[in-house]
Design brief:
Layout (H helix, E strand, L loop, with lengths): L1 H5 L7 E5 L3 E2 L12 E2 L5 E5 L10 E2 L6 E3 L4 H11 L8 E4 L2 E4 L16
Antiparallel strand pairs: 1-4, 2-3, 5-6, 7-8
Length: 117
């Protein structure tokens, strides 16, 4: 990030870090390690039109359940596509006679304004 910023490229480069799921706050059932937790996980973004220095959403005090500002995967995808200059609603294609879209064809995916600079 420091290098991108020093070169004047950070404002035009979207940097993402994350995983496909979180981890439960504690091991369960006497097993080693922690289980998958789809209820709370972290995605980190910088540059490319992202509002810097902010946190959006929160889990409960244990990190187990969503407590504030949930973000659905399709909303995150719509926001990333927006930051890349693409309208997720325009990215529809037909396969086997049915419409498909990365953010789902239900039409309820939304860009999250609070994440935008």
């Amino acid at each position: 990030l420091k290098d991108l910023k020093a070169r004047g490229l950070l404002q035009d480069t979207l940097v993402l870090w994350g995983g496909e799921f979180g981890r439960t706050p504690a091991a369960q059932g006497g097993r080693d390690g922690r289980d998958h937790n789809p209820e709370g996980f972290t995605m980190w973004m910088a540059g490319g039109g992202v509002k810097g220095g902010s946190v959006y959403g929160a889990t409960d005090e244990l990190g187990y359940r969503i407590a504030r500002d949930p973000v659905r995967v399709r909303d995150f995808q719509a926001t990333v596509l927006h930051l890349l200059g693409l309208d997720h609603l325009q990215l529809t294609y037909t396969h086997s006679g049915l419409p498909h879209r990365l953010t789902g064809v239900e039409g309820d995916a939304r860009v999250i304004p609070a994440l935008l600079a």
